[in-house]
Amino acid sequence: MRNSRPKPNGWVSRVPTADAVLRESVVRVTANRPGTWGFAMAEVRACRKWSLATQAMALGVSESALVFLSVCRLPRPGCREEDVVAVANRMGIPVATLWFILDLAAEATGTHRRVVTEGAA
Length: 121
Known about the structure:
Blueprint: H1 20-30, H2 37-48, H3 52-59, H4 63-70, H5 80-91, H6 95-120
């Protein structure tokens, strides 16, 4: 049996394929876990009304790559650069793509908070 765990320098050739059941389960669970990339990406999907497939296409990565990224922890406040680079190397996703996800998540969170605040007024 082949080991699908990422090597220290990223996946050997490509990210393993996550079947539909695994994708659905990981996306559902991590969407409710603050501190994970899955939580941040769920905020973006909700704000932009994107599916996982649409998000993957917009970011230029596979759905499976997003699924495996979802379980990773978000960067620590004092180590953002270092943590983003480490996750990028580990997952085989460009650093710029991860920064873009963080920017979209910050925008989505700000928009969500504005809507909730304005809706309460």
